[in-house]
Design brief:
This protein folds into 2 domains: 7-60, no CATH class; 70-241. Helices cover 70% and strands 2% of the residues. It is built from 8 helices and 2 strands. The radius of gyration is 24 Å and the shape is globular.
Length: 247
């Protein structure tokens, strides 16, 4: 009587058999030219001696009358640019207000989150992420200064030039960071964003000598930074669990 396989090996064989059967059914469907309306894998193959759960598996949905992958990204790009413009207008409105709204507008870490999220979610290449991060940041700046000029007759100063130069650097940089993070899910790539959220209140304290009121603004900013750190760690952990299962 043969020796029984350990539970891990049984699970590995079961997963391999399922993947092989699923791929066979999908291939038969393609050969018979019977497209379905659901999602299906483009590449997911078992290898000898191990099961590969590929992180590069692409899922596609049939699209009538055009490329099945370009249209969603075009909509994402359009929504990202419109969202950045609206964000700039809202930030300018808060900036021209009094009290807490003025200091909420001065939270600069949000301006770094914008290109990071766009680079991670709205584009597929590093070059596109750099261009998108720059475009969104400049779009938000255009909306911000356009609003302030129209409603407050704002005049440009050397400080505004420094802000624009900073945006010209941070936009492409954090757009690229977002794209690379979306590919590798490394928590290290999200660390600059976390440091920006957690460290900005301390920077204000060192610059002004105190934290401007109300303090709840800076408490929320630090809490968001801690939440981002936790999200990056969880994403990194989940990505490791999806790596190939080796014997």
């Amino acid at each position: 009587m043969g020796a029984q396989l350990p539970p891990v090996d049984k699970l590995r064989q079961g997963v391999a058999a399922f993947v092989e059967l699923y791929n066979r059914e999908w291939l038969i469907e393609r050969l018979n030219h019977r497209p379905s309306g659901g999602l299906r894998p483009v590449a997911c193959q078992p290898a000898a001696g191990r099961v590969i759960v590929s992180r590069s598996v692409q899922w596609t949905r049939p699209v009538q009358g055009g490329n099945m992958t370009e249209r969603p990204y075009r909509w994402r790009l359009l929504l990202a640019v419109v969202g950045a413009f609206i964000f700039g207008c809202m930030d300018a409105r808060l900036y021209l207000g009094r009290g807490a709204g003025f200091w909420v507008s001065n939270v600069s870490s949000v301006w770094l989150l914008l290109p990071f999220v766009a680079g991670a979610a709205a584009t597929r290449t590093r070059r596109g992420a750099i261009g998108l991060g720059t475009t969104l940041t400049m779009s938000a700046f255009a909306a911000f200064y356009g609003w302030t000029v129209v409603h407050h007759a704002h005049q440009f100063t050397s400080r505004d030039v420094l802000f624009l130069l900073g945006g010209a650097v941070s936009g492409p940089l954090f757009g690229l960071l977002g794209r690379v993070w979306a590919t590798h899910r490394s928590w290290v790539l999200g660390l600059p964003l976390v440091v920006a959220f957690v460290g900005e209140p301390y920077a204000w304290y060192r610059h002004v000598g105190r934290l401007p009121n109300p303090h709840v603004i800076w408490t929320v900013e630090v809490a968001v930074g801690i939440g981002l750190a936790g999200a990056f760690i969880v994403a990194n952990r989940a990505n490791r669990l999806r790596r190939p299962i080796r014997p």
